[in-house]
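[Help] Beginner question about ligand-bound structures

Sorry if this is basic. My supervisor gave me a protein sequence and a SMILES string for zinc ion and asked me to "get the holo structure". I don't really know what that means in practice or what format the answer should be in. Inputs are pasted below exactly as I got them.
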Amino acid sequence: MKEEIKDFKGVYRVGWYGIKEMTSYLAHCNVYGFEYKNGFILIDCGNGFTGREIYENVKKITSKKITHIFLTHCHYDHSLNSLFFKEDGTEIICHNICAKSFQEKTYQVWYEFPHLIKPFKIEKTFNSDKKFIFDQLEIFCIYTPGHTMGCSSYLLNLNKKRFLFTGDLIMPDGEIGWSGSEDFNKDKLLKSLEKIEKIDFDFLLLGHGGYYDKKDGKENIKITIEKGKIGKWKVQRDYHY
Ligand SMILES: [Zn+2]
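Answer (accepted):
No worries, everyone starts somewhere. Holo just means with the ligand present. The predicted complex, written as structure tokens, is below.
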């Protein structure tokens, strides 16, 4: 079945794996977005080949401009459409370790093809947990290293609901994201999971595959932590496409 835009009470999923047939052999994250008074904000932006498709999906929701993109981390399947959106004046925001990868360590962005990436600069960065306010909309950046050392999760308050975006920190069914990064760190990942376990949310929106309501989301985080504590995570060090 053809995938469509999904609406989680005001947060839309506007990008996903297989959004464009020709790129389906490449990884692609879930791209989420939401409106505020002066524009539209994305959480992650996809793999560098699908900017046009994501832009068109946003146009189906609003005529407002995509003003900002918050990146959960540097991996290409989450970040490389940044270049497409930067052309249009969109401001990219991420943790400063993540930003450094785009400028100095492109092998961190796409392990298999670092030479394909032209280093680029990030306009706005943060070093630790930080709150951004857009008109009356609050976005909390929560530093959650482990999958990479520059990973962040984001908590959004919208329409009296709390949305938690965790990128590749967790996968469905108690699994962790790809663990092949040079700076993957199991212990830090476990600590980050324990940090987000304490956060109150109504929706848990993952970087790939799944999305959960409060009950199943809490359960998934708990199972992931338990598996990590007894060394049951599937840790892969090989490349991924
Ligand atoms: Zn990743």
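A couple of things worth pointing out: The chain has a mean pLDDT of 93. Helices lie at 51-61, 76-79, 82-86, 96-104, 106-109, 186-197, 214-229. Feel free to follow up in the thread.
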